[in-house]
Amino acid sequence: MAAKILIVTGDAAESLEVLYPYQRLREEGYDVHIAAPTRKKLQFVVHDFEPGFDTYTEKPGYTWPADLAFSEVDPGQYVAVVIPGGRAPEYLRNDPELRKILKSFFDSDKPVAQICHGPLLTAAVDGLRGRRVTAYPALEPDMQAAGATFKDAEAVVDGTLVSSRAWPDHSTWMREFLTVLRAKAPVT
């Protein structure tokens, strides 16, 4: 049986930040499950930059079914977790079931991949204190407030925590995460 990886997300997650790791990790041989507040078809979004805008724009993206609800997740069944960005982390960080799940991964020192606004979730469980991370650059003050040292780089590895800025950094982010996974939780 293949090792399982959990992706935690919700509506308004960045499409590429969910689907790229989902497909890449499956390609590598992992069994990947997507968890959300409830089992339903999730509506993802596309963030991009348009001339004349001071920040990114948001457009409707792909839809994708959640495999299970946060309340159904047994973190002990999973070797790692992926936390995509988008707007989803802004409201998901208030979900007590998700906070329990994420805390379990940090308490067990299992691999965690986070990207873009995903670190808002790990900050909510005090998983960033004393660590080096990256995130969407506008989150630098949030990362510092969470006790992390922020580095503006494609990917930052701190033990089993691998973080990235946004979807343009996917190849570096997944390459670094797979290095951690192969050492800590290889495909069986």
UniProtKB/TrEMBL annotation:
It comes from the Bacteria. It holds the Pfam family DJ-1_PfpI. Residues 4-178 form the DJ-1/PfpI domain. Belongs to the peptidase C56 family. This is DJ-1/PfpI family protein. It comes from Streptomyces himalayensis subsp. aureolus. The lineage of its organism: Bacteria, Bacillati, Actinomycetota, Actinomycetes, Kitasatosporales.
